Amino acid sequence: MDKFKKQKFLVTSIFFAWFIFLPFNIQANQPDLLTEIFHHPCGIAVNEAGEIYVISTGEDLVKKYSGTYQFVCSFGGTGNGAGQFSQPQGIATYKNLIFIVDTGNDRVQKFRDNGNSVEFVSIFNLQQFYYPRDITIDDTGNLYVLDSGNHRILKLDINGKPINFSMLGTNILGEFGTGQGQFSNPYGIDADASGNIYVADSRNNRIQIFSSIGHFLKEFGTQGSNYGQMFEPQDVAVDKEGNIFVADMYNSRIQKFNLNGRYIQSFGTFGHEKGKFFTPQKLKIDRNKRLYIVDSNNNNVQVFDVSIYFTDVYASPTAFSPNDDGIVDVAFINYTIRENTKISIDIYNKNKNLVKNLCSDAERTKGQQQELWDGRDNTGAFVTEGVYTFIIRARNALNYQPSPKGGVVTVDFSQPLGSVSIRNDAVYATQNTILNLFASDVLSSVDTMVISNYSNFSTAETLVYNSIQNWLLLPGEGTREVFVKYIDIAG
């Protein structure tokens, strides 16, 4: 029998406490410009292949481009015959089909895209349209025609057959007025992934949102030039994340709102150069999150990248202890940006009070960046224990401010709780025994343990924290002590 089998086992333990950091996720840049000459363009669409269609309204033509902005073909021409147009202003695509709002002829025309050419298919007239201005198509192929002169919306199937779409649960498709479901010269329309309909109610200086069957959901916007206000908005576009972009025509800017209509940011001023607008009229967002802006009086189309601006946002190390003890005293906030820009980083406590302005409008170059935080607040004192949030904001040369990114950091000065015992709570152990170990911390997770047979840890083994561990006790009979340090992820 092994002589150690009946030896008594005694354990003591030592505990340490640190920090934990947990990241979380909360652009327009210098635009491309379609170099083709347009005459008062008033409509744009992008198909699933990334091909672009621009309505050159002054020419009564639709021009098609590849996804790299290379001209492919054009179709149309002035007139009221099949395939001809009079002041066309709206366009939408569904698979290989193209639908054109032929405004001056009070109709919608349907075409088929054959690659390098486009052929006429049919006309939707219904003897109902009066100066229609825009069209959108939902993911199931339903068409919504903005019949501006009649201040209403008509819903059609892919063949032009009317579908029930009534405002406020009545048979009214819209009417002139300022109330919910009423319009005053609406100009732009879009549909989101859920089938909800967004309308730029131009003369009422607002955006109205409806369900796919016409029930009113919400509205936002008032007349003015302050952030969130509008002056005859001409169009609205919604991306897959629910961000709402508005062509604020007479303020010569694009505004961005969240799904609830809360203002986020704006960009653009009056002018004729890239990044400036005269009369932004139509918007379209493609699947690659490129925002196309038709600026009619500047006779151009500008393309902005509004995809994720920040990537690789994280802290390294993921936890730190800012107490000047020389052990993990600082943390770095890491992020990658897609262009040269100005960066501001603020850190807030759990009550949403600002505790540290890490940097403000700091010039940073394209690529990976890193900012250091030593755990001090704006007065120079170390922050107290708790959860802190950092927010990264950017502002580029065009004054575009993308959605911020951020994360949280937990400052943890409390000690983890821990215990250790022999497997199955045995009173006696052999030299080669099995330990049960337990450690926890309210704010941080324990990831490391240091085990030793000596109180000064002169000989010790550092291991990944585990609840069960084989351990070799000192040889000989008698009472043995095992010393354990539990270390959380802050070091």
From TrEMBL:
<feature type="repeat" description="NHL">
    <location>
        <begin position="264"/>
        <end position="307"/>
    </location>
</feature>
<dbReference type="GO" id="GO:0008270">
    <property type="term" value="F:zinc ion binding"/>
</dbReference>
<dbReference type="Pfam" id="PF13585">
    <property type="entry name" value="CHU_C"/>
</dbReference>
<dbReference type="Pfam" id="PF01436">
    <property type="entry name" value="NHL"/>
</dbReference>
<feature type="repeat" description="NHL">
    <location>
        <begin position="217"/>
        <end position="260"/>
    </location>
</feature>
<keyword id="KW-0677">Repeat</keyword>
<dbReference type="InterPro" id="IPR050952">
    <property type="entry name" value="TRIM-NHL_E3_ligases"/>
</dbReference>
<dbReference type="InterPro" id="IPR001258">
    <property type="entry name" value="NHL_repeat"/>
</dbReference>
<dbReference type="InterPro" id="IPR011042">
    <property type="entry name" value="6-blade_b-propeller_TolB-like"/>
</dbReference>
<feature type="repeat" description="NHL">
    <location>
        <begin position="72"/>
        <end position="114"/>
    </location>
</feature>
<feature type="repeat" description="NHL">
    <location>
        <begin position="170"/>
        <end position="213"/>
    </location>
</feature>
<feature type="repeat" description="NHL">
    <location>
        <begin position="128"/>
        <end position="159"/>
    </location>
</feature>
<protein>
    <recommendedName>
        <fullName>FlgD Ig-like domain-containing protein</fullName>
    </recommendedName>
</protein>
